[in-house]
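ok so for the tutorial part 2 we go from a plain amino acid sequence to predicted structure tokens. step 1 is just haveing the sequence, like this:
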Amino acid sequence: MAIKLDTLLSWPFKDVVQSYTARDSILYALSVGLGADPIDHDQLRFVYENGLEAFPTMALVLGYPGPWAADPQSGIDVSKLVFGEQQVTWHSSLPPATTIRARERIVNVIDKGEGRGALVYVQRQIFDHSTEQLLVTLDGTLFCRGNGGFGGPDGPIREPWQVPERDPDCVVEMPTLPQAALLYRLNADYNPLHADPKFALAAGFPRPILHGLCTFAIAAQAALKTYGGLRADRLRSLRARFTAPVYPGEVLSVELWRDDNSISFRVWVRERNTKVLDGGHAIIIQKA
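step 2 — the prediction. this is what the tokens look like for a chain of 288 residues:
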């Protein structure tokens, strides 16, 4: 099975039109741990319909174009496909309820060489369907471990963000719920890896794992609460690399470094001495 560069770069994605409601925004916020303190007014903004706001990372579950990589025409060996990195840029605040139009495209495909895999850079832009205003841009990296050596370009490769070498300025402990994956999957990711113990065991995990994008959202909470008062409109961009899975119920230790509006972060599960997110970076403005 080999990737065909021209085929991927011209992949015929169709725009996805999706409506979501205030209930969907609340469910998303609950699934990433918001509302854990039911009398915290900052958290209530995302889980209570009175004055409701959408948590910014909800954009990650909008406009999904379907499992296109599983199409044999893609040439991608999905049994060796992992999600490598995610970057989000907010151009405007995400409404708590609206209809969006999402437009997907493959930006580039990098050949790392035989036995070293390939990188597929995918971009999704999310627009307000009625006004056509660009709300969010999602840039993701798919690491196709079984597709190196297809004869494509060897660059340019996106360089990971380097966190500072000094000690963190702050460390925030973020517990996850034992049922976190069962809640998060209701946002539309029904992969049995996150729910079925037998499926997870067959895939090499002792139990179902948490969605990487849920871990990403929890890290966003830690950074935004610490440096932005948990105000959605202060978060302008966010990126990180996925380095290891999280099991629901584990505590995430989020290391944070601040340099003005630039926030670097890294996430560990201390009980396993495992780094689960690396190269984290956010832009959080101090006044909106």
